[in-house]
Amino acid sequence: MARVKGSRNADYEKERERLLEAVRARLLAKDGAQASFRELAEVAGVSVATLRHYFGSREALLAEVMTDMHRRGLPFLHAAATELHGPVRESLQWFLQQLLMGWRMGVGEVHAFGLTASVGHETLGPVYVQELLEPTLQSAEARLSRHIADGELRRCDVRHAALELVCPVVLGLLHQVQLSGARCRPLDVERFLADHLETFLRAHAVDPESPAPTRPRKPGRPA
What we know:
By secondary structure, this protein is mostly helical. It has 9 helices and no strands.
């Protein structure tokens, strides 16, 4: 049966996913965010016209890559938002450790790409915020809201509190890893996270002096 004019081939979505997979690997590599549309087409093994057929423009392609990264991260974001791990100190310690572990496993490269491609760009900037930055902040908001409801944290603007909790960590990890700050100004990231959590709890916890979990302290290591 002939395909209706204007409809998509049965393999359209499969090929589109293959192209996304190919260009994503390049975009997350060093200097990937500067790759031209032609270079991305070459990496994907197609012509510029074919890549344009599937995504329209380089800007639209980068936006779709950010959206795809968001989709891939949804299970982890859901866990960060909903999985409680004991009282507030233990819970937020777990959250920060998950953020650190995710950063080391590739989340850092995702944010580096998003920032490089988006800063100063009036279209891609909001895409980065919506698809990559805000989901992490909103997972923190959800976790903090539950501890506020349980009476462990003082009532506050939860969005502000999420920014206080997440942003120093993101900046510290960008500093150490993506900006190579570990070479010129190394930071004990584990100690930084512990100090940061104590500062946050002093500001927001109903009982900031509640004891930390009794567990062996791991030696600091670079991010």
